[in-house]
Amino acid sequence: MSRVYNFSAGPAVLPEEVLKEAAEEMLDYKGCGMSVMEMSHRSKVYDNIIKEAEADLRELMNIPDNYYVLFLQGGASQQFSAIPMNLMRNKKAGYIITGQWAKKAAAEAKKYGEVIELASSADKNFSYIPDCSDLPITDDMDYVYICENNTIYGTKYKELPNTKGVDLVADVSSCFLSEPVDVSKYALIYGGVQKNVGPAGVVVVIIRKDLVKDDVMPFTPTMLKYKTQADNDSLYNTPPCYNIYICGKVFKWLKKLGGLEKMKELNEEKAKILYDFLDESEMFKGTVEKEDRSLMNVPFVTGDKDLDAKFVKEAAEAGFVNLKGHRTVGGMRASIYNAMPKEGVVKLVEFMREFEKNNK
Ligand code: PMP
């Protein structure tokens, strides 16, 4: 067996320990004589799996009792419409545009109500997080929306916006469980799991209970109504059973490692290795304002397209794969999620150093 260092932005690297455990349980889950893939979502065994996953996530994130945890489908993108359909009661919301994903969410919300663009970093190709200390937020807004970590551009809010008392909604797809969060500061947090948590096909929504009502836009599909999902403990219909089971294993892995405080420490250590190198290198440069740098997605360029392509190719040959940057930024991007071992980043930097020396 030979595993590569996978720097994909998502679907992304998962903890090897989790994959091995899943492999061991593939044919016979704990004496059931069947795989989790094969069992009814209404069985007692599966009920324990999903309940345990929720309990472990609640413990990890210290989720207060007045929040629901929902395991849903449709990816993060489905939430771009579910959020306004469920929450836009005044038909008005503020969006902060820090990249493609926030932009797409805002475009979808416009179908359902008025969207006020509160701030944007489009002027510099989303390479920074705008000042959010005094935004034109008004009381009649149903929520303020952010994309907390911008996967494509490698920026992250280091401080949440001052929402002036308006509910905050955050897409945390690419920074989910990478550091502790104070859930009580948000009305709704959601993330596709395919970066830091598990296999694609699940989106976790953590929503304050008072927001979950029958009073949603009349055309809201039953499946997209949070109340349907909350009333049925995420089991209104057949959930992505196997994927939730893997997420549950990742939650246990995180707990065993020491929880989110420890994850933050490890992630800071890993990111520093790469950013320190980018700051000292004469060939490779980071593309983001230093104070807004993400711990998860690290874009960088050489400034020469051919050299970028040569680097990506040679890196892949050496076992460092999926380093090609998003087409809108170009260059390279190393996604160094929770499951990327420190060794992977250390070796990548060694490779970059060597490449720089050989291509002067
Ligand atoms: N939000 C962010 C921050 C993302 O990175 C992505 C996917 N890369 C999405 C939303 C869209 O996720 P999905 O493909 O699950 O709809």
TrEMBL record:
InterPro entries per UniProt: Aminotrans_V_dom, Pser_aminoTfrase, PyrdxlP-dep_Trfase, PyrdxlP-dep_Trfase_major, PyrdxlP-dep_Trfase_small
Q: What is its EC number?
A: 2.6.1.52
Give residues annotated as binding L-glutamate. 42
What this protein catalyses is: O-phospho-L-serine + 2-oxoglutarate = 3-phosphooxypyruvate + L-glutamate; 4-(phosphooxy)-L-threonine + 2-oxoglutarate = (R)-3-hydroxy-2-oxo-4-phosphooxybutanoate + L-glutamate
State the free-text cofactor note.
Binds 1 pyridoxal phosphate per subunit.
Transferase listed as a keyword: yes
Q: List positions binding pyridoxal 5'-phosphate.
A: 76-77, 101, 151, 171, 194, 237-238
Positions bearing N6-(pyridoxal phosphate)lysine: 195
Q: Which cofactor does it need?
A: pyridoxal 5'-phosphate
What pathway is this protein said to act in by its record? Amino-acid biosynthesis; L-serine biosynthesis; L-serine from 3-phospho-D-glycerate: step 2/3
One GO biological-process annotation of the entry reads:
L-serine biosynthetic process
Q: Which GO terms describe its molecular function?
A: O-phospho-L-serine:2-oxoglutarate aminotransferase activity; pyridoxal phosphate binding
Cellular component aspect of the GO annotation: cytoplasm
Which keywords does UniProt give here? Amino-acid biosynthesis, Aminotransferase, Cytoplasm, Pyridoxal phosphate, Serine biosynthesis, Transferase
Per the database record, which ranges form the Aminotransferase class V domain?
4-347
The reply to whether Transferase figures as a keyword in the UniProt entry is yes
Query: So what family is this one in?
Result: Belongs to the class-V pyridoxal-phosphate-dependent aminotransferase family. SerC subfamily.
* Cited PANTHER family: PHOSPHOSERINE AMINOTRANSFERASE (PTHR43247)
Describe its partners and assembly state.
Homodimer.
Q: What does this protein do?
A: Catalyzes the reversible conversion of 3-phosphohydroxypyruvate to phosphoserine and of 3-hydroxy-2-oxo-4-phosphonooxybutanoate to phosphohydroxythreonine.
This protein is called Phosphoserine aminotransferase
Source organism per entry reads Lachnobacterium bovis
